Automatic annotation (TrEMBL):
This is OLC1v1005293C7. Residues 100-267 form the Stomatal closure-related actin-binding protein coiled-coil domain. It comes from Oldenlandia corymbosa var. corymbosa. Residues 378-485 form the Stomatal closure-related actin-binding protein PH domain. Residues 109-148, 174-266 form a coiled coil. The lineage of its organism: Eukaryota, Viridiplantae, Streptophyta, Embryophyta, Tracheophyta. The keyword Coiled coil applies. Keywords: Coiled coil. PANTHER family: STOMATAL CLOSURE-RELATED ACTIN-BINDING PROTEIN 1 (PTHR31172).
Amino acid sequence: MTRVGRDFGNTMQKEAVPPVSADVVFASSRFPNYKIGANNQILEVKEDVKVLSMKEVVARETAQLLDQQKRLSVRDLTSKFEKGLAAAAKLSDEAKLREAASLEKHVLLKNLRDALESLKGRVAGKNKDDVEEAIAMVEALAVQLTQREGELSQEKAEVKKLATFLKQASEDAKKLVDEERAFARAEIEKAREAVQRVEEALQEHERISRASGQQDIDELMKEVQEARRIKMLHQPSKVMDMEQELKALRHQLEEKSKRSLQLQKELAISKSGERNMYEVDGTEALGSYLRLRPCSENAPDLSECSLQWYRLTCDTGKKEPISGATKPIYAPEPFDVSRTLQAEIAFDGQKIIVETTGPIDPAPGLGNYVEALVRRHDIEFNVVIIQMNGSDYSSPSIHVLHIGKMRMKLCKGKTTLTKEYYSASMQLCGVRGGGNAAAQAAFWQPKSDVSFVLAFESERERNAAIMLARRFAFDCNIMLAGPDDRTAIGS
């Protein structure tokens, strides 16, 4: 009979159980707690603290990211993706640690089973049954461990997929952040340029406003000073009295002039002893028009007679025909000032000559007005085209006649009808005929195939335009003349 000593356990442990390899690293400092469940299954006793699996942790983080993606900015989303990627890397490291721990468990179970198999051959009886039960438990634990390893492999594959997805999402987020940053920088630069342009425009506007405001203030101060000076020199009542007196004197002068003309005509008739059948009616001054009027019942109708107007030089008495002046109405032009006008009426082989009582008087203030215009570089007159190339012009729109130092130009807005330099072929004079409006109309032929009849705003504007054009042309050694008989303009 074999005798078992008290130190059997220690002897068996030293001799029968081989030592554990030094390469094995235990995941914890204690052996796991197991118990026998239904059908002799070995169950691991879990601790009270609930530990989430890797799949649950990743699912929870992913749900949180997807939930917050709509309300996070691009920068925060990138941060979250980077945190998720770091969590996935951490979970991958934990999976590696668990894989290593699982390998350690397999090695431990194998060593334990080998130790139990070695112990089984050394014991008998109840101890042998206990050893066999322990071997069965170790084998069941190995099977359960294998199952857990399969689940861990699946979780590992899912973690790798999720890590790949999070990595790609992080790269996309970084790319999106870079694009948004570049777009934001471009928008900021555009905004800066726009702000700079607005600031420059505001500064320019402010500078112009200050300059114009200062100029307006200076002009206003000058006007105020002039008004004060006039107020100091003249009292309002005196000025009004002077204006009324001047108006009355002008009216009296006009009446006396008409009376003087009538007396001169009667004196001429009394000297000649016979009364002429026609006479010149109208104010004999620049800015008016003259009309041939029959003064006898036996006078033939002027439409059945041939007419011709002449200029008489006061000094020499030279008689010059006025080209194109073959109508009963003639409006004197600046070239007729200080000259006597004569009209020759021919009918049935007879000729009747009538003339003005004296030289044509100049228009008051016209010379000073022209001298003021000469100082400008380009003078503009508003005109209306009555005829173009001998035909009536249908449009009554206002055009602008430019009279410059070297050329003349007729335009409407930005459209130029004609523009010609002063030349010998250019002609400019008053209209020959034209009815009551003859004193405000002028004939202008810039070149041989183009001609206009222009109506000015007043007689003063018409005569000033003719005088300016002739003066500028004379400075260019060119003499502007009136139209010849072939281009005469009728009434």
